[in-house]
């Protein structure tokens, strides 16, 4: 059995065939899915999905690209919703210096606020990082994010950075890019980082693994991520499935 620890079933890309996507995931032995909501629309949809499906859990927060749109009332709303027993984390939050919609200082301020919120609620933090590794790690350290820990979602950094994050009580989550032929760093991380610190995800509908690269991703493809990690580590896919599922259930406190 597998857990997709980061999926956007709340995305418009699934509007026409969501149930079929979920059915394919279950057929592929993806027994649990953690749906991430990162703005008003996707958070509302996340709350609907966790109510509708026993095997769906939620993470809610505010995406750094849209940090400029976030108001205190949005954070208050997230705090209120996070009392739901099936909300298992705060995020995705972090920094994204690739897109320039939200200034860096605005992103950083919101990132710190969401770390504080996670600490207040005693929930782990799910981190989005794009082209901002140094600042992400520095802020996590300054704000003592280790007190609640979290996940480096769709990790694309170096082995050294992965070790820094693990030392701060963070899990390393790998997705479709680890299957890409030219993805040197994710493959190095998959090879070098002990499996006890790894989780797997799709980030669907984005970042579909090989051989579906460039197409719409879906949670049924998470075994392809596990298969590549197994190959790199010289383990069986069953071993990767078992350990990453155990890791995710323990991390998110999921007991089904």
From TrEMBL:
Listed GO MF terms: hydrolase activity
InterPro entries: DNase_TatD-rel_CS (IPR018228), Metal_Hydrolase (IPR032466), TatD-like (IPR001130), TatD/YcfH-like (IPR015991)
A Pfam family it matches: TatD_DNase
Keyword terms, alphabetized: Hydrolase, Metal-binding
Highest taxon, organism lineage: Bacteria
Cross-referenced PANTHER family: D-AMINOACYL-TRNA DEACYLASE
Record's protein name: TatD family hydrolase
Record organism: Lysinibacillus zambalensis
């Amino acid at each position: 059995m597998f857990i997709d620890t980061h999926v956007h079933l709340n995305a418009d890309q699934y509007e026409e065939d969501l149930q079929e996507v979920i059915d394919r995931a279950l057929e592929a032995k993806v027994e649990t899915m953690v749906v991430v909501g990162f703005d008003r629309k996707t958070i509302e949809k996340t709350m609907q999905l966790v109510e509708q499906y026993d095997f769906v859990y939620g993470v809610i927060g505010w995406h750094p690209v849209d940090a400029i749109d976030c108001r205190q009332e949005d954070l208050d709303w997230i705090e209120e919703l996070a009392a739901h027993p099936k909300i298992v984390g705060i995020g995705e939050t972090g920094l994204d210096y690739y897109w320039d919609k939200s200034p860096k200082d605005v992103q950083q301020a919101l990132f710190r606020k969401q770390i504080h919120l996670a600490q207040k609620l005693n929930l782990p933090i799910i981190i989005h990082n794009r082209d901002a590794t140094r600042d992400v790690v520095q802020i996590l350290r300054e704000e003592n994010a280790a007190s609640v820990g979290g996940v480096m979602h769709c990790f694309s950094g170096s082995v050294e950075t992965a070790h820094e994050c693990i030392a701060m009580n963070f899990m390393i989550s790998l997705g479709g890019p680890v299957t890409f032929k030219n993805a040197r760093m994710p493959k190095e991380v998959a090879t070098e980082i002990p499996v006890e610190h790894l989780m797997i995800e799709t980030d669907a509908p984005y970042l579909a693994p090989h051989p579906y690269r460039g197409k719409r991703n879906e949670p049924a493809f998470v075994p392809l991520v596990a298969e590549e990690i197994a190959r790199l580590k010289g383990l069986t896919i069953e071993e990767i499935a078992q350990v990453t599922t155990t890791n995710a259930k323990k991390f998110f406190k999921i007991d089904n």
